[in-house]
Amino acid sequence: xxxxxxxxxxxxxxxxxxxxxxxxxxxxxxxxxxxxxxxxxxxxxxxxxxxxxxxxxxxxxxxxxxxxxxxxxxxxxxxxxxxxxxxxxxxxxxxxxxxxxxxxxxxxxxxxxxxxxxxxxxxxxxxxxxxxxxxxxxxxxxxxxxxxxxxxxxxxxxxxxxxxxxxxxxxxxxxxxxxxxxxxxxxxxxxxxxxxxxxxxxxxxxxxxxxxxxxxxxxxxxxxxxxxxxxxxxxxxxxxxxxxxxxxxxxxxxxxxxxxxx
Length: 262
What we know:
The chain is of the alpha+beta class. The protein folds into two domains: about 5-150, Chemotaxis protein chec (3-Layer(aba) Sandwich), CATH 3.40.1550.10; about 180-260, Roll (Surface presentation of antigens (SPOA)). It contains eight helices and nine strands. It has helices spanning about 5-20, 60-75, 80-105, 150, 160-170, 175-180, 195-200, 250-260, and strands at about 25, 40-45, 55-60, 130-135, 140-145, 185-190, 220-225, 225-235, 240-245. The strands form two sheets. A five-stranded antiparallel β-sheet has the order 1-4-5-3-2. A four-stranded antiparallel β-sheet has the order 6-7-8-9. Helix 1 (about 5-20) packs across helix 3 and helix 2 crosses helix 3 (about 80-105). The longest helix is centred in the middle third of the chain and has 27 residues, at about 80-105.
């Protein structure tokens, strides 16, 4: 996946979760940069690799509209400009967390989002891409840019791409065809925690066990004790389901398999 896809997924999910409805974010290729009045520029750095930085610039028309959408879902009808501004910043903070989770899978090591900053001016020498936020036919454009270091860890490594190609070629063999009908157990993990024995003994009907994952974080899709993908929980014909948002890298699958079996 590319950083554009991570940004689309993470910001779209953050807004949708807070607005309690589906709001989409998509790259708008060949679209002129929007003229942003009273723009908010968000600078987001990540713990790995060095110089991995993302910038998001949105005019007042964007952050105020999106802020009102989410605040209205919370029952706040007369939100002030500052309320909308703070809400937009909270959405970007959640977006950074979602991107960090995706980068962790791509890099095969933990990547965390550092505290976002609001620089006074746009960074020099960066290439901006235009995105659109769409809600019920309404559309607002913002722009984003990132360093080459951030883009690099989003692309699959050459070795992994080669392994995928080998797997595709192997798919044509008769031996591999025989394996295609083998059923594998698939589970979904919402998170985990540790409790002392005395705490376990105190559990009863109505007790709440807090997990190590935020509501906005993606859930893990596990096959044979390996995390193979992550996604968001959806409802399909009255049943729970998971919409896949990212696939785990080979390194991440190996790492999670060791963790789950110990």
